[in-house]
Structure formats: C-alpha cells, structure tokens
Amino acid sequence: MANQQRYKSPKRDIIISVELNQTRVAILEDSHLVELLVDQDSESRMVGDIYKGIVRKVLPGMQAAFVDIGLPKQGFLHISDIGNELFTKDVEQDAQAEEAEKKKRRRKIQTIQDQLKEGQEIMVQVTKEPIGTKGPRVSSEISIPGRLLVYAPFDNRLGISRKIEAPAARARIRDIMKKIVTSREGLIVRTAAEDTKAEDFKAECQSLRNLWRRVKRQAAQASAPSMIYRETKLISSLLRDVFTDKVDSLVVDDGKEFKRIKDYLRIIAPSLTGRLVLYKKPDPVFTSYGLDDEIRRIFHRKVWLKSGGYIVIEQTEALVSIDVNTGRYTGERSQEDTILRTNLDAAREIARQIRLRDLGGIIVCDFIDMESKNNRQAVLDELRRYLKYDRAKTKAFELSPLGLVEMSRQRVRSSLHHSLTQPCPTCEGRGRIFTPEAIVSEIERAVKKIAPAGKVNKLMIRVHPVVALHLMEQGGNMIQELESQTGLTIQLRDDPLMRMDSINLLSLPTRKEIEISW
Q: pTM to 2 decimals?
C-alpha cells in the first residue's frame, strides 16, 4: 500500500508566462518544476515543419544526403530516415504479407545513391532543430500529429502508444482503428486517446487526411526549396500534446492568450475548459509559483539532494556526465544504507534534471558504488520508474560493476544551457554567460517585480553596452511598453565596466540600488 501511495501519478499543472519578447511554459508535477519551455520571438521552432527541398549532395560513404530547404544550413537526411514512398516508388503496392516481406528485404539492400540524385526534389520534415554548427535533421517519413492520432501517409502500420498499458484498452483501440485505417496509410494512437470513443477517432482521422491533402496540393504548386507546412506554435502544440485530463490546471497570465486558448479548447477538448485559469495577481506568475529560484538553478553544475548528497552535471560536446556524491549525508546505520539512500535520491533527481534541462544524446550517470546486487537493481528501477514521465524517448541501460548507467535520450532541440547561454568572451569560451535576449527578459521580470510594491516611481536600468544595443535594436519599444504596463518612468543607461550578463537597478532621483531577490 505504501508503494502504491508513493508512486501514484503526480498532480500536474502548466503555467504560461507571456512576455514582450518570449513565452515561457513551466510544467509542474506535485508543485515541482520538471519542464521549462522557452519560445523566443526572435527564433522560430522548426521541428514538424515540412519543406519541399532539393538534394544538393549525396554522400555514399555516410549513406546520407544534404537537402536544401531554403535555410542558411542544409538539412541532413540519413538513409534510415527515408520513407516508404521512396523505397517503394517502383514497386506495385500489394497488401499480401508475402509481398510486404519482399519489399522489406529489398529496402535493406538499397543504398542512398539508389534512391536520391543531386538536383532531385523531395518532400522532407524537420525532426531535429539545428544545434551548434549542425543543420536541421530531416526525414522523408512525414508524420502529422493530432490530439489523438499521428497520421503517417507513407506508412501502413497501426501503432498504439506504449504508455497505454492496459491490455483491454489496447485491444479496444485496435478493434476501432482497424475499421478506420486503410492499407495505404499509417496511424499511431497517442497516450491521450486511451478512453476515446470510436466516432472521435474517426473524426480526427478524417481531419488529418484532409490536412495531408492540402499539404500535397501545396507541395505540387510550390517551387523548391520552400516551406509547405508549418507546425503549430509552442502553446498550440502544448495544448494538443500535453494538456489532457491528467493535467489539473493550466494557468496563463495574458488575457488575449487566455481567450485564444479557451477558443481553441472549445474545439479540440471542451471538457478541459474548466481547468483553464487566468492569472490576475500583480506579481509575475512565475514568481507567485516560486519558480524563479528553480529556473536560476537550472544553470548550476551542482544540484543538492534532499538527503544531503548532491549531483554534478557536466555538459560536453560528446556526452553529458552526471556524478553522484554523498556530500553532507552520513547516514544513521551502515555505509551501504547511506549509499543506497543517496543513490535512490539521486536517481529521482537525475530523471527530473534531464527533463528540466532538456538534456539529449548520450548521458552517463556515475552512481556511488554499491556492494549489493539488489541495491544496484533498486537504483536502476527507481531511475527507470521516474523516466517514464519523460515525453522524450529515453532509455537507461544496465548498471555496470563500476556504478555507471549509460543512457540515451532523444535530442530534438538544444538544451536550455546551450539555447539561453553563450560562450563567455572574457574567459575565451571556458565558461558561459546569459545571452542578451535572456538578460532583456530578466530586465522585464525585474521591473514587473518592483512595480507592485509602489515604492519606486522612477527607475534607472544600467546594463553593458551590448545588452543596451540589443534592447534598442531587437526589443523595439520594450521600455515604453514596460512603462505603460507598470506606470514607472524608466531610463536606460549603458556602462562598459559592467559584466555583460549583469543588471543594475537604481531608484531615481536618489540613485539608490534596488535589490532583487531571484
């Protein structure tokens, strides 16, 4: 009974903060921050976008090709991401199992140069954002997600989310979908569809088919390279993919966005409109929920555990390493019990930090050595249990004799560390500082914290010249907008002696420095 209580599904809340130059989304589980999504106005999200591209270079040695999709960096297409529409373009469609097996064998021996030629036009979809010097990863296996289903026009499989575990539910869904799906399309049933009725499946499937027809028409008319379909914005995709009946509340601090979300929910999930809340308090919504400190700690190397131990997270080009230490925790019984409790505590926190920091690729966790095989298995089980809440594809391999767990996690975009910080010019790239965009957002939040207190009427903001220039060029009329929203009179001053990622707030006319608690 204790274990059931311990591992019950967490209370989930989504908090949306709409700012002048960005939108931030916090996903909470039992009031703890587990995911932070940041949508910068100056950057566009690309994953899910569909392009009509041109093959520029075929690389037989890598079994890959570079595809021009009209962006500064060409897309990278590996042979494993080439869909059936290319592999079977010269093979007559046949539903019989024997013929399908022949196609499968034929696909295995085909090479990239058999399928693609330089100058060839091809429809591709972005599966990974550009990261560092790498361009976007693309695939010709197109898929269009809906709230209940993912439509795969070039596939012929019926799949059901692994997170729908009940055999009876899976059997019911499979019976429904067999009556809907045709032999020339593929469908994947999403986790949110576990209790969905047949008519709702049928309606969404038809909607996705119609959308795909529009995409094909656009592709036929468009010249390459060009975009032919744009995936929905952050909030819309969040409502579609995350906001289900397992989420207790969705809180948004902007009236216009609140109305847009409510109108959207009335179409896709009317039963959830009662869980939508408009935040009206004077303090910023993230401050009210105590998220500011948690967000600042995302960028710290060291994370303290409840037991008194700590983990150290290091991000490198090749992999992410996570080291576990007992720290201040000395335990009350044996050394093995002390190590076990620290490792169990670390396993839960590692699963959370991986999601929170959006770490991807290869991750190596160095747990403290344990003598007991049962204890080692208990730590691995705990890690895997909490990784189940992760929306990204994550796999944790067996614990090695040295206490190492190798993991792989789907990398779709840059981690928060890389997207919100940049190499420090002072230390020649050995450390990192916040980008001007991130500093401008900090300024906005600081001013909105000061205003409700009513102790300041005039305010001077001192920043490094690089940040001041970015604020004037990219921020547009941000200062005027803040003055209008807060009632404060604001002066902006640049100071070359300041650090590039620091902010100094002064009350006028006294020029007294204002302390801000983050």
A: 0.75
Tally the domains of the chain.
Answer: 4
What single string gives the DSSP state of each residue in 374-411? Answer: HHHHHHHHHHHHHHTT-SS-EEE-PPPTTSEEEEEE--
Above 50 in pLDDT, residue 89? no
Per-residue pLDDT tens for 458-495? 999 999 999 999 888 877 788 999 999 999 999 999 99
Asked whether the beta carbons of 152 and 186 are under 8 A apart, the reply is: yes
Across the beta sheet with 32-40, what order do the strands follow? 32-40, 22-29, 12-18, 249-252, 276-278
For 362, the 3-state DSSP assignment is strand
Torsion of Cα atoms, 430 then 433 then 437 then 438, to 10°: 130
Q: Do residues 78 and 98 share a domain?
A: yes
Dist. CA 486–CA 159, nearest whole Å: 51
With CA atoms as reference, report the closest residue to 50 among 305, 228, 210. 228
Residue range 246-250: mean pLDDT, rounded: 92
Give yes or no for a cis peptide into 509 (omega within 30° of 0). yes
| Greatest CA separation for the chain | 85
CB 274 within 8 A of CB 311: no
- Is there a contact between 152 and 182 (Cβ–Cβ < 8 Å)? no
CA distance 415 to 396: 19
Model confidence band, residue 43 (pLDDT cutoffs 50, 70, 90): low
Q: Is 283 helix (H, G, I), strand (E, B) or coil?
A: coil
Q: Domain range for residue 250?
A: 2-44+246-290
| Residues 255, 208 within the same domain | no
> What are the phi and psi torsion angles at 311 (to 5°)?
-120, 150
Write down the pLDDT at residue 100: 46
Q: Does residue 324 sit in the same domain as residue 452?
A: no
Render pLDDT for 209-231 as a digit per residue (tens, 0 to 9). Answer: 999 999 999 999 999 999 999 88
**Residues 165 and 35 both lie in one domain:** no
- Going by their DSSP bridges, the two strands 458-463 and 504-508 should be labelled as antiparallel
- Structural domain includes residue 414: no
Tell me how far CA of residue 288 lies from CA of 253, 295, 330, 449, in angstroms: 11, 13, 35, 10
Q: Are 350 and 343 in contact, with CB atoms under 8 Å apart?
A: no
